[in-house]
Amino acid sequence: MSSNTGLHAFLYCSSICPEQPVTVVGDIVKAAREKNTALSLTGILVFDGQHFCQYLEGPSSSVSSMLQSICEDHRHTDVMLQFHGPVDGERQFKGWAIAYAQSEQELALDKIANFEGREALALFRQLLPNLDYC
Predict the structure, then answer these.
(1) Among 44, 53, 91, 94, which is least packed, fewest CB within 10 Å?
(2) 75-86-100 Cα angle (round to 5)
């Protein structure tokens, strides 16, 4: 698979800014669904009340553009990029411009934040079967 034409993805963890109300998460999801559709991105945002963990997949240029936008977003802080690069196979979130799930497992997101690369991706994927998407 060519790294320029295949499926690319990123995974990051961050914390909601203390000044932001938790209700901002709904605004983030709504805007992401519109923007991701336009950029041919699919993925999921997981929020545990304090921490975000997001996985997005799509064309390399769209993934890189969105990553830059997320890093500049003032609604969260401490953005830690866990994975960024090509991924094999089909889209994991086909049909979801952005799935959203709340997690009661704060420790799970903290654990993912301690890893990088494919290890972080594997830990994140282990969390997914326990989540209800909306």
Answers:
(1) 94
(2) 40
The side-by-side arrangement of strands in the sheet containing 42-47 is 76-86, 8-16, 51-58, 42-47, 99-102
- Looking at 3.40.640.10, 3.30.70.20, 3.30.70.100, 2.60.120.560, the CATH number of the domain 8-130 comes to 3.30.70.100
Query: Which residues are registered as beta bridge partners of 55?
Result: 11, 44
- Cα radius of gyration rounded to whole Å, the chain: 14
Percent of the chain with pLDDT over 70: 94
Whole-model pTM?
Answer: 0.91
**Where do the domains of the chain lie?**
8-130
What are the tens digits of pLDDT across the range 70-111?
999 999 999 999 999 999 999 999 999 999 998 876 667 888
Mean pLDDT for 15-25 is 94
Q: What is the reported pLDDT for 103?
A: 83
Residue 89 has what DSSP assignment? S
Name residue, tokens 């698979």: 1
Alpha carbon of 18 to those of 15, 24, 49, 75, 88: distances in Å?
Answer: 9, 12, 11, 9, 37
